[in-house]
Amino acid sequence: MAGSIAINYARFEGINRSELGGAVVMAIAFAVLFVFNVVRSIRHTTYVLVVLSIFCLIRVTAFTMRAVLSGNEKAGENLNVVIAEGIIYSVGFFGLVYSAYTLVLDRLRMMRDRHSSNGLANMILGIICNRRLVRIGLLVAVSLGVAAGSLTGSDSQSTLNIATALHRASIYIFLAIVASLVIVTANLAYDEHKEGMMKHEASIGRQYRVLVLLAIAFLCLTRESFYAATAKDSVKQNNAHLWYPLSALPELLAVMLFAAPGLVPSRRELAEATANKRSGSGSHDAELQHLSH
């Protein structure tokens, strides 16, 4: 008779009926943000808004699945659904981090003059400002997370140990990338302060964009620090009383901050800033050449 007792895998993973309301609220909130960002991306298409819209859609899917798992006993007994929810949620973080990173690097590219340091610090900044390396790092983190999720249904203890190791590696890579995001954003804040750019533009987003970007970066860091701190304690990591305020809520607040007016530049603004930067550099070189003669 014991063999006929169904196992509720959702309850085992910490998804309880008590969080049904929270999951529904988060799904609705991200659905609203999805529509909002889709409208914004249609009005002026940028890579940041497109990826952010995809992130919101992934979160709607994940929280809808979480609501179903918390409220439906039969769904919770389906191991594949539980695994799918975990994978979808972990993969989605890629979109938020990459949107924030892209926005900060775009802002750095738009600046006329860079106040770069010399030596080791400059080399480190060059590495963590490399878009290709950031993409590769995020893809590796996502791939490890997906691989870990796909192995969690195994009956073999050695396979489960591998899944745990892959999951932790994914968390630590995400943490390193988010920490790099904080450093790059702080560097942007220093450069903009040096140029006095924060005092001469009208909209709230443009006047205080560095503060908003720093807030987004630290919210991402809060989320991933929670996962890193609980990487060896799945009970705490899956505790809804900790998971919602330290994982779900920081993501929601970060996405909401992207709505600050003037924060996300359009493609036209990026192109104009790049052109002005090049023309300014060319004029400066011509002046130097003239003075040398």
From TrEMBL:
Q: What Pfam families has UniProt attached to this entry?
A: DUF7702
Q: Where is the composition biased (Basic and acidic residues)?
A: 284-293
Mind telling me which residue stretches traverse the membrane in this protein?
20-39, 46-69, 81-104, 133-151, 171-190, 210-230, 242-264
In this chain, the stretch annotated as Disordered covers 274-293
Which keywords describe this protein according to UniProt?
Membrane, Transmembrane, Transmembrane helix
Record-annotated DUF7702 domain positions: 24-220
At the top level, the lineage of the source is Eukaryota
Is Transmembrane helix among this UniProt entry's keywords?
Answer: yes
Signal sequence extent: none
Name of this protein: DUF7702 domain-containing protein
